[in-house]
Amino acid sequence: MLVRPDVLAAIFACGVASYACRFLGFFLMRYVKITPPVAAWLHAIPLALIGAILGPIAVNGGPPEWTGLAAAILLMRVTGNQFVAAIGGVTAVAAMRALAL
Could you list the residue ranges forming a coiled coil in this record (predicted)? Predict the structure, then answer.
């Protein structure tokens, strides 16, 4: 396998940029006063990310994805545990695909 120096440099640069964003975010948040609006914004980020990930799946997916989404929602309501809901949703999708439904 040929390793091109320009590709290696691009991968390294992307890694440095990713780390810099994470580090600067943590570093700069030291100086941000956590007011109620900032706290509300920080608490809303996970929900917004989940919506951004699951929205296209719900719209463009098929029966396996819809079943997995329904299973995850149901498990989250019943257990209140995000990990259990995620594993249950993935398991439902895998089962539907294994059954070729």
Answer: none
Q: What gap in Å lies between CA 15 and CA 7, rounded to an integer?
A: 12
Residue 89 in this model has a pLDDT that exceeds 70: yes
How many other β-carbons are positioned within 10 Å of the β-carbon of residue 95? 14
Q: How far apart, in whole angstroms, are the C-alpha atoms of residue 65 and residue 97?
A: 9
- Beta carbons of 68 and 89 less than 8 angstroms apart: yes
Share of the chain above pLDDT 70, in %: 99
Average model confidence (pLDDT) for the chain?
91
At 15, give phi and psi (nearest 5°).
Answer: -65, -45
What is the chain's percent helix, strand, coil content, to nearest 5? 85, 0, 15
Please give the backbone phi and psi of residue 99, each rounded to the nearest 5 degrees, phi first: -85, 0
